[in-house]
Amino acid sequence: MIHTPICDMLGIEKPVLQGGMAWIADASLASAVSNAGGLGIISAMNADAAWLRNQIRSCRELTDRPFGVNIMLQSPFAPEVADLVIEERVPVVVTGAGNPATYMRGWVSAGIKVIPVVASVGLARLMRRAGATAVIAEGGESGGHVGDLTTMTLVPQVVDAVDLPVIAAGGIADGRGVAASLMLGALGVQVGTRFLVADECTVSEEYKERILKANDIATIVTGRSSGHAVRCLKTPFSTTFARLEAAGASADELAALGAGSLRKAAVEGDYEEGSFMSGQIAGMVRERQSAAAIVDDLVDGAERVLSEAMRWVR
Ligand code: TUI
Questions:
Q1: Protein residue whose Cα sits closest to atom 12 of ligand 1
Q2: What is the residue extent of each domain of the chain?
Q3: Tens digit of pLDDT for each residue in 236-268?
Q4: Which of 11, 210, 259, 302 lies in disulfide reach of 179, CB 3.0 to 4.6 Å?
Q5: Given ligand 1 and candidates 121, 145, 228, 276, which is best to mutate, with the most ligand atoms within 8 Å of its CB?
Q6: Helix, strand or coil, per DSSP, at residue 35
Q7: How confident is the model over 154-207, as pLDDT tens digits?
């Protein structure tokens, strides 16, 4: 068994958080991960408070265990969902794609455990001072919006910089990644890409098939020129986007092209026009499984390799 202080802090059995994937991570996936002993997370994505309230309530019908809500700070609905998580007494809030400082006081005084995603040491330090419970150090191997540093370089630097529990994310999809994260000083992991093919994940079939077929070099990062770097599978949409970006398209033109593309992939399974966000580890995701089987494999696999690693110590 692997048990870390993150488990006690969040009231979970296994130190595995499910990534709050926009347009994908709903009550179905989140409740399945929480029921498996990890922390399931509903993505508030670009939806309004009414949609999120429904998801929170259905999650509570499907599990009596803790779960979280991921608030994407660039969403136009971020202020209203920030209030809603207090009203609904959501146990854990994870934030992404920005600095949540303006909301922190309200969440912390409502007793919410706040876990910001950071892509740099500087933001980790700010979050520590603002009252974060823990931070997720997310390397650029991950899918979706990415920072510049890798998981291997970011996690130990954040661990050294802040006296908060650190959760590693980006490039983790099996027990070896979990074990490596613990060796870097993290006390838990957040996993996104592998949960895309979970039985309880409601993403389109096309999306699942594309992840299962992906290899090690199947992803590309677009949008670096406009400050909105996003990692997704190489598809007609993303390669066109990259070509226009290289040809000097303006930030406005690129934003117009990207609008609605994640929904097209996640909900409609539109291979031509969709943005299939994915981490670099997709090449290792080969099997559809229940969320519980994935959580168990991550933790059991880590236990196995950590025990075996002792043979190198003299
Ligand atoms: O947020 C994510 N991943 C995401 S959000 C998303 S939705 C989206 N859709 C279309 C375009 C853009 C986004 C898909 N994937 N991960 C967490 C994360 N946060 N990664 C990196 C960061 C980050 C980067 C810079 C957090 C803060 C930051 O700077 C904060 C500041 O000082 O403003």
A1: 145
A2: 5-201+289-312, 219-277
A3: 999 999 999 999 999 888 988 888 999 999 999
A4: 302
A5: 145
A6: helix
A7: 999 999 999 999 999 999 999 999 999 999 999 999 999 999 999 999 999 999
